[in-house]
Amino acid sequence: SENIIESNIIINPSMGYCVICAAISILDGSNCIIRNNFIFQAYGDGYGAVVASQSQYVSHNNTFVSNSRGYANLSSDGIVSNDIIYASSNAVYIDGNSNIQVSYSDIEGGWEGEGNIDADPLFCNQDGGDYTLAENSPCIGTGEDGANMGAFGIGCGSYNFYPTEFSLSEPSNNAAITVDESNVNTGFITFSWGESSDANGDSLYYLMRATSAEIGDLGLDTNATSIEVSYMDIIEDMSENNVTAAALEWTVHVTDGIDTVEADNAPFTLQVDGSNALSAYLEGLLPDEFALQQNYPNPFNPVTTLRYDLPENGLVTIIIYDMLGREVKTLINQSQNAGYRTVIWNATNDYGKPVSAGTYLYQIQAGEYISTKKMVLLK
């Protein structure tokens, strides 16, 4: 007789102890058609999803997942097509008196036969129990005569593959770089990493991030697999933060705009010693001579900025006078390091009281250098 077993959902069947049993058992000379069934977690002492003993069957468009076996033939013959057998301990077992012909099926671990594949079927939500297929499943349209494989059709949009793994390359982890006078103007730190790929064909972008307690954070995005940071940029950051060395921890992420993957060996650390270059850099920033610049804005109301240049360290005084020569406000009276400097006057006197509109003098004395300029306060 011919029996048809179709459109069943069999989950975690209890087979107990038996000699010949499975979720579907075909015994004693039976002829059977098995189609459009889903069998999940058929384990135990039996043969898994389907066992045939001294029988014959034709099976197609079934989905078997996480079973001890997909098919077991004991002195039996079977023809299988358009099936998905995934995450099973053994896809197929046949004894010496059996035959099985498998074609146009997705068999994990592979099986010889026309049109067979060995690929992740891309179920829509396997963890949630949804075994329909994503639009870009390799089982869509690849069955016999262009049919779909498995018991279920398309149930969701295309699966987005994560970008593939990649690794950081250079500078190597725990590398040390010295920046000095000979290379500060021409040298670069080249950060490089391996290339990632995307099975969906999406464009990939790399997000390089470096963090440093000494000089702050650096972030650059690129579609290349390396970036260059000039030594001069690093030295300028050191100067701004008043440090001569910095430790950087850096990493790279890759994204397809949906999913993001970090380099598999991240993060790397990098030590940069800029003490020699920084000394030369700071010397290049020093003015050649003393100077008192015109305040800005001028006229002003009520705040203005006074700029002055110090080619050497020393005691500096800056005092505001009225046109009668009376002292109005002492802005600076202290030792200062060489450099380009500024000070703000908010049109108040030494007692914090606002002064009246008019013309005022401001005078700097630094060592033997003395200079005086006029400014106008409007009300």
Features:
six-stranded mixed beta sheet; five-stranded parallel beta sheet; rod-shaped; 379 residues; mainly beta; single chain; Immunoglobulin-like; 3 domains
Task: Give an account of the 3D structure.
This protein is mainly β and 379 residues long. It folds into three domains: 2-156, no CATH class; 168-283, Immunoglobulin-like; 291-377, Sandwich (Immunoglobulin-like). The chain is 6% helix and 45% strand. It is built from two helices and 33 strands. It has helices at 231-241, 275-285, and strands at residues 2-6, 9-11, 24-26, 31-35, 38-40, 50-53, 56-60, 63-65, 69-74, 77-81, 84-86, 90-94, 99-103, 106-107, 123-125, 130-134, 154-156, 168-170, 175-178, 188-193, 205-211, 218-222, 226-230, 245-255, 260-262, 268-273, 291-292, 304-310, 314-322, 327-336, 339-345, 358-366, 369-377. The strands form eight sheets. Strands 19, 21, 22, 24, 25 and 26 form a six-stranded mixed beta sheet that branches. It has a five-stranded parallel beta sheet with strand order 1-4-7-10-13, with no helix packed on it. It is rod-shaped. The mean pLDDT is 93.
